[in-house]
Structures
1.
Amino acid sequence: MTYSKLRILVPLNDPGAEERLIRFAATLAQTRKGELHLTHIITPDEDYPWADKDLQWQRDLVASYGIGAKSHLVESQSVTQGIRETALRLKCNMMVMGWYHEVVKDAILAAENRALTKAIGIDTLIFKERNSFPFKRLLVPSGGGSNSLMGIQIAYELARDWQIPIEILRVARAPQEQYKPVLLERYCSQLFAGTKLQLELLGVDAPIHILPGKDVVTSIVEHTREGDLVVLGASNDWRQEEHLAGSIPDEIANQVPSSVLMVRSLSPEKSNLSQIFWENTIRLNMKPKNKWDAITQMVDALVEERQVPASERQNVLDLALEREHKSSTALGHETAIPHAPIPNLPGIIGCLGICPDGVDFGGAYDEPVRCIFLLLTPQQNYLSYIPVLAQIATFIKPEITRSAVLKCQTPSEITSLIKLQENHKDP
């Protein structure tokens, strides 16, 4: 989140009733000496004759914060179209929206701001208020992705401006039996070191709390207090509208007793392996009966980690198995890349499984497979996975790398190897 000037678009459904959202956006703009563009879209079926007056009143409110503000009353056939065109015309680089429904599945599916966040290519913040200002603490659960990192940066600036404590929270998910106390302690230390490095790169000085837990959502909810503002990175994963309510951020927003700020950064076009395979989507010491069992276990891992909705588990599994039946996905070097095209999936989802004893994937290579990279790719752009295949091949081809991967005892050790390769360093 680096801007020469922060230009925040604030779409308002009811300008006369959204003062708290506007105050929050104004506070955010103060941290970067930005400006607000308060915008209401008039659609053909709307009857709101005093919208312009309400917008002017809110613009004057923002001026009291000592920052620039402009109001815009825009006619359009739809809210999404109007906001998109306004964001482009005004060259806005951030959007701040309110969430006024209950955070339950039906409300999420019906909300127009979901469509907006997907349609407009700028950084987006969605604010759900449960407890009023002033907040007592900023709690930032992080998974290490781009959305989480942007959330950390924003929360850090707000904490300094509001002069309240901030805490960065990483959940060391440890559901597997092999996570004995010594290994769990090692995994927690690795997560702490990785998170500390990320904070240093962001220029953030904040306390880090590593919390062991079997379930990410439950661990975060139990750690949250009333009076917190929880800053969450939005899900990068499954974005089909009918399944959005099942993502980890949505589950947390539904259950925490405090206000929530959901952050979605403008995603880079290129997908690195470290963005696809991260700690919670890596499974060590797998012992499948055969390749079909291996693929099944890995799909189940993605369901368990809420990367795939439980309702879509069988469909995803059938597609992955169907692809494997056509021809083996083994590519040599003790590696296989089973994959499946998924309808309406806008990004790539992955799971990495390590099978030290090996599993027979058949095909032209007379060797057991020990490294399995499962990829779910967009059906509408199925070839988008080809650059990822190339990255996997480059990463796993050297015998020294495969040997290092098989020696890893925690997921963090594998992600470190992947990031080393991405930085053109030898493992």
2.
Amino acid sequence: MKALSKILVVCLLLGIVSCSKDVTNADLVANENHPPLDQVEPEPEPEPEPEPDKPIDELYGKEIVLDKGKLAIDKFEHKELADGIDYMRIDLTGNRKLVAHVTRMSLESEEYELQALNAGKTSADQKTLKDIVKDNKDVLSIINGDFTTNEGAYGSVVTNGLFVQGANTDDWKLVFGADFEGKPFIEAVDYEHVAVLDNGEEYPITGYNMKRGGQQLIAYTSFSGDKKTNQNEWGSEVVLGLKGISENDGFVELKYEVEEGPKAVDGGIAIPEGKLVLSGNGSAQGFVGNNMGKGKTVVIRMRAKSIVDESKTFAVNQAIGAHSIILANGKPTEPKADGGVSTEDHARTAVGYSDKYVYLVVVEGGIDRSGGCTTRDLGYISRHFGATDAVNLLGGSSSRMLIDGKSVSESTKDKEVVNAFAIVKK
């Protein structure tokens, strides 16, 4: 009897388990679009609130790391010049006396942009920064540009998409530039120029403002300072008027209309101010003479190509040649071997960038309050204010920064320069 009772209890329990399984399976079938409880994704945790940014004086006004160690900053000055644009100054007054000035512009600024400004109407013209400011409206901050000779800048220059000149020497092809979106870059480059007709036919331009050779197409501009092309009659030349500048598929596209020609004149045709002359010989003579009647459209396509990595190209809107890289990927570089120019303390000028800002930097030198610095320390100073990459520009007595047309640096006079970098209203 007891055995029978145990059997009945076991059967009853088995039936309960079986029923329980049937109910569970039925529920799952009826709710097949809903995952089991143990598979339901938990509610995402709210992201932590970002920590508030440190005050700008705490970030940049307490201490600075230079090549020989960390130094206290004795005086820090900050002024907001416009939305996203700041001016900062640091003073070291201890054993190392140094004054540095920085203008920092957000790359997202909707009101201002970085521009390369030519001093005058030709590539050899030189003016003071104050005079350059007078010639250009709405300059907020400006620094001197490239090293210069009596014939012009050492390096290449592009201003607002217009090619002013190429590098004077093969060892001065480094540029600080910006594309049409305002994105800055530092690269040693060569430039490519191609003339394109309405029908798509194209011919490479050998160079600008140079002697024309056989089968070559040469472009001449008034930036050269020459009144005419000075070519023989064995060619064909036209005068082009600029109608527009744009960026397309990685190239700067300059749209021109033929205003005069084609002509073949011994001594060459005149180069009107603000115009471009194309001069062709041989097959290039046919390209010009047979296709470029008055009123025809010609597009000049230009881009810069990296000398180190030819896969890197740039539609250059602004560019000025530079002496050397002083900061690369956040690391100050070793000074250039140039007979002590880089390793001695002098007044210095730099331009740099990060993923958020572009920086104009001037260090005073040769006076009691500031002895200047090496190019390596210039890299450290640029990094101190947030730059990750920067180049050295013309220094010494030419180093100068103006804010709203007034000099903030005292170690130099307003010396004439051939070009400048400026933060200008769009």
